[in-house]
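Reminder to self: tokens first, then the designed residues, so the page reads top to bottom the way the pipeline ran.
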């Protein structure tokens, strides 16, 4: 299937007004090279009824939404498609309250859950690590941050950021919430996020020493002048991140969910030059049928550190 996606909201509404149309689209994204029975591997014969595809060889039935973020949803797929459009068509995304209002959803919890499920799909399985020259540094979210509300005022989240050098600009980024500034946490992030053989540029923090498999460009600051940054790309990414958390989400980002917001920020940042918002809609739905389902219980319980792989 070539990259086929709606260009405008009226086009989206016209094309995806029925469950059949939505399912057919998801089928194409999930099995781009044609359907294969997950049980017997037969791809020759199948029939479709009420959204289920039945294997002609072994009679096994598969739903296009099984094993995806749409599994067990009580919402119409058409509503999901509108939600995905809403999230991807706006440069800075949308808060749960904003989405509840825009889609006329019955509850805030429904909107919140949908957004978190979508964030699960914002990390592409098996995506490539950063490469070339990569700046790495840490920042805090919460604590004395002006504008941060709720529980976060008592807790600070330590966030590590990697940003590729691209001329004078920034290439791709990776962000992750880490528990501490130990060697294990810092080196663990670098190994997960940066291709071995790349150059990693850090400040003088001793825990970065002994990085194996990388060239280490260690910037030791001797004199500090205002507005001068040893790691200017990280500085820029961090200020965009904080502006986004305080703007779109008004600082109301739960400490235990920060990783999912980092995933959304990363998804948006790394596609910021995409000419078409429709293409982001396509990408997000494509990834949505490739990730594991995320039942509500796993959304409200924080996952073990590092449990969801590379951030
Ligand atoms: Zn089969």
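Designed residues (311 positions):
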């Amino acid at each position: 299937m070539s990259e086929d996606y709606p260009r405008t909201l009226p086009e989206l509404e016209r094309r995806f007004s029925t469950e059949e149309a939505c399912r057919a689209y998801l089928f194409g994204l999930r099995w781009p090279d044609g359907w294969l029975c997950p049980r017997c591997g037969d791809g020759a014969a199948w029939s479709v009824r009420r959204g289920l595809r039945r294997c002609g060889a072994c009679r096994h039935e598969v739903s296009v939404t099984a094993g995806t973020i749409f599994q067990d949803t009580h919402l119409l797929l058409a509503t999901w498609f509108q939600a995905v459009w809403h999230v991807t068509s706006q440069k800075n995304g949308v808060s749960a309250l904003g989405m509840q209002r825009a889609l006329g959803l019955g509850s805030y919890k429904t909107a919140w859950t949908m957004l978190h499920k979508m964030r699960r799909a914002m990390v592409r399985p098996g995506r490539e690590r950063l490469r070339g020259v990569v700046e790495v540094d840490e920042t805090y979210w919460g604590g004395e941050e002006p504008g941060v509300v709720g529980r976060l005022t008592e807790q600070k989240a330590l966030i590590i950021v990697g940003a590729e050098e691209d001329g004078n600009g920034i290439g791709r980024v990776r962000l992750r919430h880490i528990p501490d500034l130990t060697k294990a946490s810092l080196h663990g992030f670098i190994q997960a996020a940066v291709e071995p053989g790349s150059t990693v540029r850090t400040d003088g923090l001793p825990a970065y020493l002994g990085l194996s498999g990388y060239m280490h460009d260690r910037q030791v600051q001797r004199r500090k002048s205002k507005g001068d940054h040893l790691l200017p790309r990280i500085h820029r990414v961090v200020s965009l991140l904080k502006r986004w958390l305080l703007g779109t989400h008004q600082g109301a980002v739960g400490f235990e969910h920060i990783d999912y917001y980092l995933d959304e920020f990363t998804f948006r940042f790394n596609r910021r030059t995409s000419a078409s918002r429709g293409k982001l809609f396509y990408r997000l739905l494509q990834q949505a049928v490739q990730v594991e389902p995320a039942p509500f219980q796993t959304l409200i319980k924080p996952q073990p550190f590092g449990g969801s792989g590379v951030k």
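Confidence is low (pLDDT under 50) at residues 301-311.
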